[in-house]
């Protein structure tokens, strides 16, 4: 039995509320169980220097966790003057994942920054950030289309992410913190709306895993991201 009482293939309750901030071109609050992430997308009318005069745009991401997002207070990284390695790794993952679903030539020479701020954490914050970040990005691009600033839709496909792992010897979908902290194997799966893989992160946290178990986790991830994509569609 999972700590939450869920079956091995059950997702946590998912909700995505859009338009939650006044100024961002795209915004949403995504809730995956007790993990809540505020995602905003901001459009700048210039690309990063390495893309100037190339006709291509860029999508990047920043990630942060509020001090009391967890059960004990975490010091703000700004107070220490540097980001942790974990933060840098996660925001690079979010940026890579979102760029996989966009045509950067169709976007034109501009940059969209997706900010993902974890309000409350209960496992799977990077996956929720990717899933919610895509919604914020979609809404921002909709504004470009409505204003006639891009001639064709640069969004190629949905992008969503979910965690899976081996908990108590069983492959399970959508780990919460209680499971994530005890999982023998932990994985994050990022997929497109057409089921194409963008990235897979898997590691043996406490026990090695077999090829068969990896396939079982991928099957769970495909089912889980399909549900997330339905939630994205309902939100926009």
UniProtKB/TrEMBL annotation:
Q: Which reaction does it catalyse?
A: tRNA(n+1) + phosphate = tRNA(n) + a ribonucleoside 5'-diphosphate
Q: Which keywords are on file for this protein?
A: Nucleotidyltransferase, RNA-binding, rRNA processing, Transferase, tRNA processing, tRNA-binding
Exoribonuclease phosphorolytic domain residues = 10-140, 159-223
Q: Which organism is it from?
A: Acidimangrovimonas pyrenivorans
Q: What class of enzyme is it?
A: transferase
Record's protein name: Ribonuclease PH
Q: EC number(s) for this protein?
A: 2.7.7.56
InterPro entries attached to this UniProt entry: ExoRNase_PH_dom1, ExoRNase_PH_dom2, ExoRNase_PH_dom2_sf, PNPase/RNase_PH_dom_sf, Ribosomal_Su5_D2-typ_SF, RNase_PH, RNase_PH_bac-type, RNase_PH_CS
């Amino acid at each position: 039995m999972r700590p939450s009482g869920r079956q091995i293939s059950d997702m946590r309750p998912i909700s995505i509320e859009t338009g939650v901030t006044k100024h961002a071109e795209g915004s949403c609050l995504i809730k995956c169980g007790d993990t809540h992430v505020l995602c905003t997308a901001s459009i700048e009318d210039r690309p990063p220097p390495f893309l100037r005069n190339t006709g291509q745009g860029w999508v990047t991401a920043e990630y942060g966790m509020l001090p009391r997002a967890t059960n004990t207070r975490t010091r703000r990284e700004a107070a220490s003057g540097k980001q942790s390695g974990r933060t840098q790794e996660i925001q690079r993952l979010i940026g890579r994942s979102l760029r996989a679903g966009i045509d950067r030539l169709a976007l034109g020479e501009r940059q969209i920054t997706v900010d993902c701020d974890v309000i409350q954490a209960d496992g799977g914050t990077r996956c929720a950030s990717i899933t919610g970040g895509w919604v914020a990005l979609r809404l921002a691009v909709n504004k470009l289309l409505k204003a006639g600033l891009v001639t064709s839709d640069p969004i190629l496909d949905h992008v969503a992410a979910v965690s899976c792992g081996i908990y108590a010897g069983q492959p399970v979908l959508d780990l919460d913190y209680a499971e994530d902290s005890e999982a023998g194997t932990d994985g994050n799966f990022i997929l497109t709306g057409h089921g194409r893989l963008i990235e897979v992160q898997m590691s043996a946290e406490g026990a090695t895993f077999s090829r068969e178990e990896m396939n079982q986790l991928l099957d769970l991830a495909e089912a889980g991201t399909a549900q997330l994509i339905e939630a994205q569609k309902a939100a926009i």
